[in-house]
Amino acid sequence: MSDVLPQADRLDEAVLAVPGVDTLFPAAPLIATAITTAVDALTRRAPSANSVLVAHETAGLSVAVKIGVTDGYPATEVCRRVHDAIVEHLREYEEQEIAEVAVTVARIG
């Protein structure tokens, strides 16, 4: 997943607005996050702020997000709401099919 779409920066906000979501974690593997951070520092470009990864795949858009769920909220329901918020947001800005939305719970409570 490499092609970050221009509207993806607002996906972070859309996900954080979902009741029960209290944190976004980098969805990229740790090594990719470390490399990106190092390249950002070396090239003096603005740090990559997106925690929600969106990429163009042959079957359509592929989305990955890793969240923290607030204690007292059912993780399954929060994940479904996050999925729906992402799909709704992307449909406003993208004409391409959405092939996959992967929501991972990294922490509860």
What sort of overall outline do the alpha carbons produce when their principal axes are compared? Answer: globular
Q: Indicate the percent of residues in helices.
A: 25-40%
Structural class: alpha+beta
Q: Main sheet? A: 4 strands, mixed
Amino-to-carboxy terminus distance: 29 Å
**Gyration radius over CA:** 14 Å
List low-pLDDT spans.
Answer: 32-37
Mean pLDDT: 80
What is the fold-level CATH name, i.e. the topology? Alpha-Beta Plaits
**CATH C-level label:** Alpha Beta
SSE arrangement, N to C:
HEHEEHE
The CATH homology group name: Cation efflux protein, cytoplasmic domain
Beta-strand share of residues: 25-35%
Tell me the number of structural domains: 1
Number of helices: 3
CATH architecture annotation name: 2-Layer Sandwich
The count of β-strands is 4
Structure report:
- By secondary structure, this protein is of the alpha+beta class.
- It contains three helices and four strands, in the order αβαββαβ.
- The protein has a single domain, classed as 2-Layer Sandwich (Alpha-Beta Plaits).
- Strands 1, 2, 3 and 4 form a four-stranded mixed sheet that branches.
- Helix 1 packs antiparallel against helix 3.
- The termini are far apart.
- About 6% of the residues have low confidence.
List keywords for this structure.
Alpha-Beta Plaits; 109 residues; 3 helices; globular; alpha+beta
Helices and strands in order:
Elements lengths: L7 H9 L4 E5 L4 H14 L9 E5 L2 E10 L5 H19 L4 E11 L1
Parallel strand pairs: 3-4
Antiparallel strand pairs: 1-3, 2-3
